[in-house]
């Protein structure tokens, strides 16, 4: 009896999982919108890096399973690949906040399970792009699992927006002190912390609009980073000659107006991030003041990356290249030693299982594609199984008619701005296998009229300048194609699927 108690105590101390020791730990999850990691997106985040990453762990190989807001956020919420949650794009018809999403995948999202574990849950900020609109349940709809709900209606904005506050519409104007969204959600989370019940753990999710367009900085940061320009190295202003159709269409070299536009955007994105840096500091200071910091995990990441001039695409995401699919990820919390870097690849679909693992939830009863990375951060008695390869999949967006601003371009394209350079098309639809073992390889197939294939060896070519599809051994291409087919039809964790393991 005594030894059983001792063993439980030992397990709880060694595993740093307070589920076994009584109350599970608290969790704060900060999710930015469009923040890259490869082009200096974390440079403005001085306080956040010092308070989270330096005090815990940086993941140097964190990826999104898809480089677009609504599908990526749906993956984060459900722990599932897009082919399983079936949210394809940012429109209602592509399942973004659709009735089918609400009835199906959203009812199995992580907050539902956390709530069952008696977590007090708080949401603040941008949710899914169509959230709160007609056909998406309107403002009165509060997704299941959230006790306190302060969600933005529609896509990212900094001023002049509506919030759903627990199902009631709250309109905001453009007074900095009252309305600036990044500051507002920080303030509301502090109020939540004051009012929470100390009997139960809490989960706070903060999703600021930054650094998404329209890049509206707080007044005190409007002059910051003057003279800063987008980086000119790597694939900046390079032609996409050996790449898929959309990239071959981009104007190269870019026009001066495009370059001025993207440099401006680059600087303004950084300015908006300074308010996110303040948000992190406010939350950490509050947790410290309430003596909760030592029992709270803090996660910081973005929904996907971003590009400014890479392969002559002025500004956006949606591409298969590392600048769009890599994301920042840092975590601090109980059992995580400071100043660590983890190289094992992790995906956005791993966040939900990691939260549930911290909460002490039995992961074998949830149907998620991701896997917990708790043991990678806080090595314990359990061993994490690193995945040898993973899937990145994307369904291109388009307009069925020509863009009125660029009538010469014809239908099928989207986001042709500035200078009528298009960032997306229906046939920018692809699926990739990424191998990150002793090899760093990417293999992608397009659903277009050319069945186009792109292959990169990122060990020798980190900027993906050369598509080596015609140079590599055909047996390697065949093996990658087999893995892709398996992954695209996979359901659940790869390491539990014997067919997938055979391909290792
Ligand atoms: C992390 O490393 C930096 C530089 O090596 C050091 O200044 C800092 O004190 C370390 N932080 C912690 C929490 O150990
Ligand atoms: C939307 O999701 C439902 C299942 O939730 C699926 O049946 C439907 O095909 C999806 N729509 C699209 C356009 O993928
Ligand atoms: C907010 O809306 C008002 C009224 O339409 C407008 O005058 C103002 O310029 C808008 N502010 C911002 C920052 O867009
Ligand atoms: C946030 O709180 C600070 C400190 O109380 C206050 O000065 C600021 O006006 C608030 N901002 C918003 C948008 O609520
Ligand atoms: C574009 O900018 C470059 C470099 O600043 C300059 O040399 C060139 O003349 C400009 N072209 C046009 C058409 O303005
Ligand atoms: C955290 O610190 C507080 C105050 O110093 C202490 O009472 C508590 O036991 C600590 N909790 C953990 C999980 O270490
Ligand atoms: C988790 O659930 C599975 C499937 O129901 C069960 O076999 C297993 O014993 C459970 N594990 C724990 C630790 O409760
Ligand atoms: C973890 O992995 C190491 C190295 O592969 C092995 O020696 C050890 O026995 C494993 N521990 C557990 C608990 O599986
Ligand atoms: C979103 O996906 C749906 C279903 O595939 C499609 O009908 C619609 O055109 C897509 N929206 C855009 C903007 O591409
Ligand atoms: C991609 O779509 C565009 C617009 O519909 C079309 O003009 C082009 O031929 C297509 N390219 C490929 C490779 O499918
Ligand atoms: C990738 O590049 C590395 C370093 O040059 C090389 O060792 C490796 O063989 C290459 N892999 C393939 C598949 O070309």
TrEMBL record:
It catalyses: Hydrolysis of the 6-sulfate groups of the N-acetyl-D-glucosamine 6-sulfate units of heparan sulfate and keratan sulfate. One of its GO terms (cellular component) is lysosome. Its EC number is 3.1.6.14. GO terms for biological process: glycosaminoglycan metabolic process. It comes from the Eukaryota. PROSITE patterns: SULFATASE_1. Coiled coil: none annotated. GO terms for molecular function: glycosaminoglycan binding; metal ion binding; N-acetylglucosamine-6-sulfatase activity. It is found in: Lysosome. Gene3D superfamilies: Alkaline Phosphatase, subunit A (3.40.720.10). CDD domains: G6S. Residues 25-360 form the Sulfatase N-terminal domain. The modification 3-oxoalanine (Cys) is found at residue 69. The conversion to 3-oxoalanine (also known as C-formylglycine, FGly), of a serine or cysteine residue in prokaryotes and of a cysteine residue in eukaryotes, is critical for catalytic activity. Residues 1-21 form the signal peptide. Keywords: Calcium, Glycoprotein, Hydrolase, Lysosome, Metal-binding, Signal. InterPro entries: Alkaline_phosphatase_core_sf (IPR017850), GlcNAc_6-SO4ase (IPR012251), Sulfatase_CS (IPR024607), Sulfatase_N (IPR000917). Its main location: other. Its cofactor is Ca(2+). Belongs to the sulfatase family. PANTHER family: N-ACETYLGLUCOSAMINE-6-SULFATASE, N-ACETYLGLUCOSAMINE-6-SULFATASE FAMILY MEMBER. This is N-acetylglucosamine-6-sulfatase.
